Amino acid sequence: MSNSTFEAGDITLEQVREFVWEIPQKGDMHAPARVLASEALLEEIREDKTLEQITNTTHLPGITNYAICMPDGHQGYGFPVGGVGALDAENGCISPGAVGYDINCGVRMMRTNLTYDELQGREEELVDSLFANIPSGLGGGGVVEAGVDTVDEILARGVDWALENGHAVEDDLLHCEDEGMREGADPEKVSQKAKDRGKNQIGSLGSGNHFLEVQRVTDVFDDEVGEAYGLEADQIVVLIHCGSRGLGHQTCNDYLRKIEQQHQGLLNQLPDKELAAAPAGSQLAEDYYGAMNAAINFAWVNRQLIMHRTRRVFERVFDRSWEAMDMHLLYDVAHNIAKKETHTVAGDERELYVHRKGATRAFPAGHPEVPAAYRDVGQPVIIPGSMGAGSYVLRGGKHSMDLTFGSTAHGAGRLMSRTQAKNEFWGGDVQDELEDQQQIYVKAQSGATVAEEAPGVYKDVDEVVRVSDALGIGDKVARTFPVCNIKG
Amino acid sequence: MGFELRDHTADVAVAATGESLDGVFAAVADGLAACSTDEIPDAGERFSLTVAAESREALLFDYLDELIYLRDVRAELPVDHRVESISGPTVESANGDDPTADPPWEVTATARGVPLAELDAREVKAVTYSEMRLENVADGWEAYVVFDI
């Protein structure tokens, strides 16, 4: 098996072992590229420019070991979605393009003690109330409308700001990476334009593939970890998927343009302008890192405000306090991010900017950066699926540090373009079918969004998770299935 | 002359043509509006904008970036784009190497801002440089731009 190959047009992948494929280093590549996938997933991955893009990523200075494509990888811009690139923090670079536009786009899951039985019959009331109270879509405003001073505080302090202003409880901070406040955030490095876009969007879902979903736990695969995460079969949970909205998008483009103006030399070495990177140690690298960390805080506050508002909606619908429904944050994961981390490379400790774009940090049990609440079992990883396919909770696997710089997949991964989806599906039909056949209640600002996010446009999330589990980078803990879904 | 929306796995691309540089800029901007909504109502007031940048491609990028920014801060979708003028570098500025000088390329345009409340629109997150092309061809100009959705 070790010498089999997979041909994908001009690119030949060599199999390293089961589910691990390598594109050998050649030409201007600074390292090989690796793709973690089954043959079934590779057949899908080869259909667009994913393999070309992961190969391009190896041209970034300081790329360490290899650029890695996760099992859910698909074509993005510059860096593929589902890409992990660890770039040396001393001699390498940091790339806004490899983080992506939606800085700290991510997912959080909140537990409840409600069971599916208790919710059945109330789905319509719940979905209507969520839709009415959680801002979504374009121009839908936010949970709070703020001045620029408030935006600055959010950028600097993250969820700590939400705690002080009554949108969070202490326990929420303990169940979020970095306790919901990224150090090194520098609001001054975020442009006025970015802040102007963000100030009316604090606590809002946005549109596209972002959503809030009420789900029921259908399976718990690992009882011990399931118990540590507080998950059991038939339980209702809430999943929230969104990011830093216009503030993050603007920050990315502001820095892409600055790189173009200040680091043309490095840019000219790269095969795709969208990979634009600032050399480690340069003023611009420092500035971007400060701005990105600030946008990370903004996104955490965004998801926190939506979660806290959801608690209020449940209180009204079920006529009891959210505390009585045990509505606590399980965990919050980022899947568009770069983070300075220390990893062991060929026996040496190295500081790396680990870029995860459409990939999720998945640190194993015992790692000091896993929050105390989960250090014995490993960091929770939340993998949202499509509307009809359900989602997974994994835990960081013991091989993640060796294979993927502590990362795994982030979702099902798109299979079909949005324009094709709109030709094949009609939003109203998708919505009716989900409700009639699967008892999933969907409410969206736009019918086109429902069509574009139809279950059929995504890869098989089961297969993505199977590969993650088999490789030991993210182990299956539980599976959930949608009950109510709201989107922009 | 005009635009077409092209397939892209996660995002949407606009392929546009114009008899002039002004025309192709406006066609890409109309393509951006079409990425956002299928039906454009007849509402809204026109407004104008001016954007400057250091090269022709950067000018297209910044013009589209500005339109997305204005959408969020004005709470209006800019549609029905007209590019009034695009000016390039003069001999002096092209030869100058003063980095603090004003960028030599400038576009002046107008658009009609349809209030977002009156639209069934989705969010285009950003313009990207990925695969971007802006080329002078035999019968005018061609552009290709991928937008992040």
UniProtKB/TrEMBL annotation, chain A:
Checking Gene3D superfamilies in the record gives: tRNA-splicing ligase RtcB
Identify which residues the record assigns to the active site.
H410 (gmp-histidine intermediate)
Q: Where is the composition biased (Basic and acidic residues)?
A: 181-199
What does the entry give for GO biological process?
Answer: tRNA splicing, via endonucleolytic cleavage and ligation
State the EC number(s).
Answer: 6.5.1.-
Q: Where does Mn(2+) 2 bind?
A: H241, H335
The UniProt entry, under Pfam families, shows: RtcB
The family database entries (InterPro entries) matched by this protein are listed as: RtcB, RtcB-like_sf
The entry's keywords: GTP-binding, Ligase, Manganese, Metal-binding, Nucleotide-binding
Instruction: Please tell me where GMP binds in this chain.
Output: 209-213, 335-336, 384-387, 391, 410-413, 487
Q: How is the cofactor bound?
A: Binds 2 manganese ions per subunit.
Family (UniProt): Belongs to the RtcB family.
Q: What does this protein do?
A: Essential for tRNA splicing and maturation. Acts by directly joining spliced tRNA halves to mature-sized tRNAs. Joins RNA with 2',3'-cyclic-phosphate or 3'-phosphate ends to RNA with 5'-hydroxy ends.
- Supply the name of the protein: tRNA-splicing ligase RtcB
Question: What is the organism field in this record?
Answer: Natrialba taiwanensis DSM 12281
